[in-house]
Amino acid sequence: MAALNLARLIAAASDTIAANAEELTALDQAIGDGDHGLNMKRGFEAVRAEAEAFSAKPLPDALKAIGTKLVMTVGGASGPLFGTLFLALGKEISAKPDRANLTAAFGKAIEAVAARGKSQIGQKTMLDVLQPVHDALLQGKTALEIADIADAAADATVPMKALRGRASFLGDRSIGHMDAGARSTALLVRTVAHSLGESA
Amino acid sequence: MSNVGIVIVSHSPLVAEGTADMVRQMVGDEVPLAWCGGNGHGGLGTNVEAIMGAIDKAWSEAGVAILVDLGGAETNSEMAVEMIGEPRSHKIIVCNAPIVEGAVMAATEASGGASLREVVATAHELSPS
Fold first, then answer.
1. Cβ–Cβ of B76/A84 closer than 8 Å?
2. Which residue among A39, A119, A131, B87 has the highest number of C-beta atoms inside a 10 angstrom radius?
3. Which residue intervals define the domain PTS EIIA type-4 in the entry (chain B) (predicted)?
4. CA-nearest residue of chain A to B52?
5. Which CATH architecture has domain A6-199?
6. For residue B95, what are the domain limits?
């Protein structure tokens, strides 16, 4: 796998979230509490402010530092969920991961997110994007194919009924809206895939 | 203080503070007590850093029981416990109970010197299982 320019990737992720913050907020207003875009933007800006320091660390430590920062700055339920994703990735990944290690670490990270949210696939959450991405990693898909798979997976949350989080209070009325966490996950996957694809 | 501590975590600082007021009035000062609420930016929500601070404030070697309101409060509280880490994390439990009744009942039990396990069990009895 190509060497990763983490500082540049953090900047790209922060830009992507900021550019789409209004859309994320609109999605969250439809079926959640309407703070997802702002919360994610604040969190990723906080990570970006320390991008140089983080990217000087070995990859596992850098990912853990990003996770901790997200937990502390995103707020809402998204902070612990996205934070746990990065914390768990950092715990499992090696300093110079190959695809097999990345795939295995990503699988463990998904389990950690599922445990944190007491959720599972099919409940209209970020897991519904993470799992297809993991499957695509296993199947040897290219970075750009994976980005498309993530987008399609986020779209596929539209007809789902929310069973976790605030959207679940709406029951059937949550059907017909895309899950904001699934959308932000797909945006991040595309950013990472683009960055890895470019340097490959 | 050797009694189990109680932490109240609500999305609303008003709910958290009001619940703490009720505990103080009904149970007294024999129990270490702390509360937090709000997203840290003036809105409703919960915040991991604030929860960690409240756990520190109510810390007791006998342990701490946390009472929460809606889902995100539970997720953030569990995250806070994990970030506090071992060995203290073994002595912190997030209760599955209604926040007001749970806090009052747990504090009542704690004020008599009950163990963390007994305090949590008392709170859990309030939840239909």
1. no
2. A39
3. 3-129
4. A72
5. Alpha Horseshoe (1.25)
6. 5-124
Facing residue for B47 by CB, picked from A75, A164, A166: A75
Residue B13 lies in a domain: yes
- The phi and psi torsions of A20 (rounded to 5 degrees) equal -110, 10
Measured N-to-C along each axis, helices A180-199 and A78-92 cross at an angle, to the nearest 10 degrees, of 30
Catalytic residue list contains B11: yes
Interface of B with A (CB under 8 A): 39-41, 43-49, 70-72, 75-76, 78-79, 83
- Interchain CB distance below 8 Å, B48 and A71: yes
CATH of the domain at B43: 3.40.50.510
Q: Where are the domains of chain A?
A: 6-199
Q: Tokens in use for A33?
A: 């509490």
Nearest CB among B39, B43, B79 relative to A80 is that of B79
* Least CB–CB distance from A75: residue in B40, B71, B83: B40
pLDDT in tens, A107-162: 999 999 999 999 999 999 999 999 999 999 999 999 999 999 999 999 999 999 99
Rounded to two decimals, the ipTM of the complex is 0.78
Of B11, B41, B90, B124, catalytic: B11
CB < 8 Å to A166, chain B: 70-72
A23-82 pLDDT tens trace: 999 999 888 878 899 999 999 999 999 999 999 999 999 999 999 999 999 877 889 999
Asked whether residue B129 is domain-assigned, the answer is no
> pLDDT at residue B19 above 90?
yes
Give chain A positions within 8 Å (CB) of B45. Answer: 33, 35, 75-76
